[in-house]
Design goal:
Helix content: 25-40%
CATH class of the domain at 80-224: Mainly Beta
Strand order of the largest sheet: 1-2-3-4-5-7-8-9
CATH topology of the domain at 80-224: Lipocalin
Radius of gyration: 25 Å
CATH architecture of the domain at 80-224: Beta Barrel
Organism: Rhodosorus marinus
Number of helices: 4
Largest sheet: 8 strands, antiparallel, barrel
Shape: globular
Subcellular location: Plastid
Order of helices and strands: HHHEHEEEEEEEE
Distance between the termini: 85 Å
InterPro entries: PAP/fibrillin_dom
GO cellular component, one term: plastid
Structural class: alpha+beta
Domain Plastid lipid-associated protein/fibrillin conserved: 37-214
Number of strands: 9
């Protein structure tokens, strides 16, 4: 066997290794995404939580924890006391949820009566929270729209805005549940009692809430009622 035949490939391998090392040494052009962008990716990937795996849910919790931890050191977009802000009042489109009932309606509706839900949003309006223990009242209307047959499920709650949990807790009392079809409205004997949710994060464009059962909800502003 010719010695040159053995050495020449080794020389070529050496050149390939040098090129590979050179490529690896180049600085990466990939830009790390922010927690907000990562959360948006998860919302889109999971179809508002409908297709969320256990891993997706764990990642969402990690991102939310990071957003909360970074409140005091980020770009100042978040609002520390959401219930004090007029920007909190408005129409909010759901982007992600872990709430079993809501996810079920988005996944399959109420067969055979209703197809899977499409638009899911919340309208929040009413008085402003005070920096004291005074109560300020308002209303929340939770709306779920079904395309077939065309119908809307509305759940209305009366809200007491309390300056507790550092201005993040919203207490409510269930008021009415209604299923509306064109030309017909059916009052349902559902959703009785009281509850609350905590606004974990609010930055004018998005809200992250957790209710008393631990469900996580992420919403984006659609219409601000105070503009």
């Amino acid at each position: 066997m010719s010695l040159l035949f053995v050495i020449s490939p080794l020389h070529r391998v050496g050149r390939w290794e040098q090129k590979a090392r050179s490529r690896c040494a180049r600085p990466s052009t990939r830009v790390a995404i922010s927690p907000r962008e990562r959360l948006l990716e998860l919302c889109q990937k999971t179809g508002r939580g409908v297709a969320a795996s256990l891993e997706d849910k764990a990642q969402a919790e990690e991102v939310v924890a990071r957003l909360i931890a970074d409140k005091d050191v980020d770009d100042g977009e978040d609002i520390a006391r959401p219930l004090d802000s007029a920007l909190f009042r408005g129409k909010w489109d759901l982007r992600y949820s872990t709430e079993d009932t809501l996810v079920g309606l988005m996944r399959s509706g109420l067969p055979p009566l209703l197809s899977k839900a499409e638009a899911v949003y919340q309208i929040l309006e009413g008085g402003m929270a005070e920096a004291t223990s005074a109560v300020s009242h308002g209303l929340i209307e939770n709306v779920i729209e079904f395309p077939r047959p065309q119908g809307t499920l509305r759940l209305v709650v009366k809200v007491d805005f309390h300056a507790e949990n550092e201005g993040t807790r919203c207490r409510f009392v269930f008021n009415a549940t209604e299923l509306k079809f064109p030309g017909k409205s059916i009052r349902l004997p559902f959703a009785l009692g009281r509850g609350f949710f905590d606004a974990l994060y609010f930055d004018r464009q998005r809200r992250i809430d957790r209710d008393r059962s631990g469900w996580l909800n992420v919403s984006n502003i659609n219409i601000n009622l105070n503009e």
